[in-house]
Structures are given as C-alpha cells and as structure tokens.
Amino acid sequence: MYYHLIMWENYRWNKTEIINKLLIELDALKLLFETLPQLPHVEEKLRRLSLLKSSVYSARIEGFDDTEINPKLESQNLLEVYRKIYAGTYVHELNLDLIKDFHKQVLKTIVDGGHLRTEPWAIFDQSGNAIAMTPMASELPGLMEGYINFINTLLEPVTIVAAVSQFIFEKIHPLPDGNGRIGRLISMLILHRGGYAFKSQIPLEEYIEAHRESYYVALMPSKDATGFIEFFLTALIEQGKVTLQKIQNGFVSTTDPKQLLSLRQEEIYEIIKDHPNCSFDFIKRRFLAVSSPTLYRDLARLVKDNLILHRGATSNAVYCKKV
C-alpha cells in the first residue's frame, strides 16, 4: 500500500489491497453488465426504478422522510437532475457553474439556490452533532477552483475519482444547503461519463441510506479518503449484484403490462383492485401531492393497457379492475 503522491490540500488515500480487489471486482461486474442479453423492456423498467430510488434515497440520507410511491418535491427535483445526467445533457467537464446549476435545480421552488455559502458552517453527524468546522466562506472561491482542477486532472480509475470527488466536496461544504445531495450528483456524473453508470440501473444511494452509519463514519473529520473509497466501491458492487439478480430472475415480463408501469401507476392499480368502482376523488385523496391532470394520465394509461375499466361520464366516472 502507499499514499497517493498527487495530493491537494493534504487530501490523500492508501491504495489498499481491499481497494485493488474491489476495483477488479467492479471491472468484472461492468463487463458482465455489458455482455448481458439486450432486453430493452427489462432495462427501461430497472432504469426508471433506479433513478427514482437514487432520488428518494438521496433525499432520505439528508433526513427527508420520503417514499418511492409519492416522492416529495426534494426527490422530484433530484430525479430531474439524475435524468439529465444519464441523458447526457451535461457535456462540459466539471466546473463551478455546473455545480451551482445542480444546486439551483435541486432546491427549485424550495429555497434560492445556485450560490456558495457566505456564513461559517459545521459538518454534522446523523445525530445532529457538529463533528468538524468547514472552511471559512472567504476561502471557498479559491478552494472550489482548486477542487475542480484537481478532480478534472486526477489520474486514477474513474470509480476512485468519483469517490474522491464526493469525499472532498463534502469536506469543503461549499453550499448553504444540500451539500450531500450535490456531492452525490457530482460522483454520479463522473461515473456516467467514465462508463461506469451500469446502464443507469444501480441506485447507489439506496445502499448509502441503508448503511448510513458506516457512510458517516467514512466521512469522519479526516483528509484520508481511504475508508470512504472502500465504502463507495463496495456500495457500487453490492447494488450491482442486486440489479443483476433481478435481471437474471426475469424481473420484467414482456407479456405483463403491469411490469412497465411506474410505481405510482402500480399503486393506483392496486387501489382500484382492492376498491372496485372507486371514484376519481377517492383515488385523489390517496395522492394529495399529485396534480389531477397527472392522475388522469395515469388512469388513462391503465385503461389503455386493459388493466382497468372506466365507466360513466368524466364527472361521475368510476374505475374497476378488468376481469
């Protein structure tokens, strides 16, 4: 093992035997994903679920109580950014304007985002205890310039660059809110550009949320990123294995239209199945955060797929499961 020779602001890591083994396992996993049979219906379903999970669990890591069935605004904003990342919307290398844009989109209609913090701040653990002071606000412009240059020129495997980018970003803590969410977006952008997005089917954030204590331990006040790199690579591998198992078990059936529904549409279908002849108002009460036009589109999709029946005029319509 050795300490990395190219250091910035004293950040460092050991290239441990564990890390080397994880890198080999990741490359094998990547190759396995690339050689799987092309099953567009399976891939699309997994991609939709993965992006939703990434958004919801990234918000939950930050303490937002959210669900996949009815994601709140924080998760909806994140989902929009994740989709843009995997659609290849962001073509330029990492830069401060891009980071600010991430922040602005994630906090859209919640608070004013897109700017560096101007106040002193601390890093808190999951219990709310301050565990480290962050750099002074006056240092942030110079630190962010150095950070961006360091990440863009770092000659390490893509997965290590992604882990280090998140680790250092959270240490700098340049934003007034949402640093964890933005740090994870940056790491996902790097993975995607480096060919390690695994077809957008690995919700890394689900693993982090399930192992939140280990996540915070790996981010403890130190500039040694070794533990965090090991955690990050392990998370990628474990979530990749879960996705592979779903694919190999025939996660999606080509003959079952229910398999291609969104999670909310699946929930609506279950409600109608359990409550025959229910009205739109009855369904709407279960999804207060969802607009009526969106719910009508969901119902139209279920009707089109011959999963439910629609009876009566629009104002007095009822819905039931098709026999």
UniProtKB/TrEMBL annotation:
Keywords, comma-separated and alphabetical: ATP-binding, Nucleotide-binding
GO terms assigned for molecular function: ATP binding
Active-site residues from the entry: 173
Domain Fido, chain residue ranges per copy: 94-234
Pfam families assigned: Fic
UniProt xrefs under InterPro entries: Fido (IPR003812), Fido-like_dom_sf (IPR036597), Fido_containing (IPR040198)
Residues that, per the record, bind ATP: 177-184, 215-216
Keyword Zinc-finger recorded: no
Protein name: Fido domain-containing protein
Organism: Candidatus Gottesmanbacteria bacterium RIFCSPHIGHO2_01_FULL_39_10
Origin organism lineage: Bacteria, Candidatus Gottesmaniibacteriota
